[in-house]
Amino acid sequence: FSSSVVLAKTFKTDCVKLQVHFFRPVPKEYLHSAELRDIMQFGSSNTAVFFKMRVAGVLHIFQFETKQ
């Protein structure tokens, strides 16, 4: 499946967190958020982007198809 990736800033009283939010476009559905510090590796190709990150202490690799 394809998904949308949104980069956002979350403001807290003591710090600013940079997060990536993942959404499924149709139907529009929130999938997951991750802080940029949790992303261990990032890559891209002509057809996809890849994220390697820890979620709840477990290493995962996410691949999202892109239109460009």
Which labels suit this protein?
three-stranded antiparallel sheet; mainly beta; single chain; 68 residues
Brief write-up:
This protein has 68 residues and is an all-beta fold. It has no helices and six strands. The chain has strands spanning 4-11, 16-24, 29-35, 39-44, 48-55, 58-65.
What report would you give on this structure?
The protein is mainly beta and 68 residues long. It has one domain (4-65). 0% of the residues lie in helices and 68% in strands. Strands 1-2-3 form a 3-stranded antiparallel β-sheet, with no helix packed on it. Strands 4-5-6 form a 3-stranded antiparallel β-sheet, with no helix packed on it. The chain starts with a strand and ends with a strand.
Give the arrangement of secondary structure elements.
Layout: E1 4-11, E2 16-24, E3 29-35, E4 39-44, E5 48-55, E6 58-65
Antiparallel strand pairs: 1-2, 2-3, 4-5, 5-6
Tell me the β content. Answer: over 45%
Oligomer: single chain
Number of strands: 6
Placed side by side, the strands forming the largest sheet appear as 1-2-3
Q: Percent helix among the residues? A: under 10%
Low-confidence regions: none
Largest sheet: 3 strands, antiparallel
Distance between the termini: 15 Å
Kindly provide the radius of gyration, computed on alpha-carbon positions and rounded to a whole number of angstroms.
13 Å
Count, helices: 0
Tell me, briefly, the overall form.
globular
Q: Mean pLDDT score, rounded?
A: 74
Structural class: mainly beta
Q: Would you list the SSEs in sequence order as H and E?
A: EEEEEE
Number of domains: 1
